[in-house]
Design goal:
globular, alpha/beta, 335 residues
Length: 335
């Protein structure tokens, strides 16, 4: 034993310091496996009917409040590490009772299928189209209105181009793709570097611990503050995000997002090709306010672009202002 102690003390200081990160990583992996609950209870994010639709994109969680007459409205949350239908809760609650309102969990999120597969823009737009078809079937086959948030705006635009007769109008809340990606080509990461990156991120040994770091409460609060551009975030959204991100399979879709597989090429080609009425609204605060190419569509007769002094989730900060502008758009451009 004394010999072992002497040998340990003889290790260079640099070697001892080099072992510290390995020890910390090992401790976190063990804590992730034995100390973190990955089967959190997840209650429905929205009131009304809650069901699971079987679609070509997998099982899709769908919320609905369809007692009122009118043109159905479909709400689509964003894509991030902990995305789910709670992100559209203010819009859903505002319009429930005055018209049929639906909201889905996109594949890989909330109550939808979270299998280990590569999640792509095609998968997301297929899910939107499948849910749209089901809503139209339930309401006599007519057109619907749809409103998406952030990256999902690109998927909704693609779906509207593929099914031009399905949508009465589309709404884009804080849409992505008006920055440098508007005209640039995004590398096909599902076949090249992104596939490798996703495989590395999702490795059995460290995939779950890595994701646990990403969706820890401090980390999620940090990213929500960047979204809001303020520390005054919605605490209910944070709590629900945490529970949703600590469910079996929760890491699979976010790892596709982080590896770049969920970003379409040159989304401007979708936006500029739209001919139906389009409403766009965004804030001016936070880290997601790059709309350098918005002028490419802002002057078109089928587009209405509104700006509020908020962050990227304006419906959480000032739902009444968002509703006034959306209702004015519908009355002016769609009626």
């Amino acid at each position: 034993m004394p010999d072992l102690i002497r040998r340990d003390r003889s290790l260079p200081l640099a070697a001892k310091l080099a072992l510290l990160p390995l020890g910390a990583a090992g401790a976190w992996i063990a804590y992730s496996r034995f100390g973190i609950d990955h089967h959190q209870t997840l209650h429905p994010a929205l009131p009304g009917r809650h069901e699971c639709l079987e679609t070509p994109a997998g099982g899709i969680g769908l919320y609905g409040s369809a007692s009122a007459p009118g043109v159905p409205l479909l709400l689509i949350h964003s894509v991030n590490a902990a995305a789910n239908a709670y992100e559209v809760r203010p819009l859903y609650r505002h319009y429930a009772g005055s018209r049929p309102v639906y909201a889905l969990d996109l594949p890989g999120f909330g109550f939808s299928e979270r299998s280990d597969r590569v999640y792509t823009p095609r998968l997301m737009s297929d899910a939107i189209r499948a849910v749209t078809a089901e809503i139209r079937h339930r309401h006599g086959g007519g057109e619907i209105d749809a409103v998406a948030l952030s990256l999902s705006c690109e998927y909704l635009a693609a779906a509207a181009l593929e099914e031009p007769g399905a949508y009465h109008s589309i709404g884009l809340v804080s849409p992505t793709g008006f920055d440098a990606r508007f005209v640039g080509r995004h590398r096909d990461r599902t076949r090249h570097g992104g596939a490798v990156a996703r495989t590395m991120l999702n490795a059995p040994l460290w995939g779950e611990p890595l994701f646990d770091l990403l969706v820890s409460r401090p980390s999620m609060r940090f990213f929500l503050e960047k979204t809001w551009g303020s520390k005054d975030i919605d605490e209910g959204l944070l709590a629900y995000d945490y529970a949703s991100a600590h469910r079996p399979g929760a890491r699979h879709a976010p790892f596709s997002f982080l590896s770049g597989a969920l970003f379409p090429d040159a989304p401007g080609r979708f936006y500029e090709a739209l001919t139906l009425p389009v409403w766009m609204i965004h804030g001016v605060r936070g880290d997601f306010v790059d709309y350098r190419h918005a002028d490419r569509v802002a002057g078109r007769p089928n587009w209405t672009v509104d700006v509020l002094p908020t962050g990227a989730f304006p419906h959480f900060e000032d739902m009444s202002a968002v509703a006034r502008r959306y209702d004015a758009f519908l009355a002016d451009r769609v009626a």
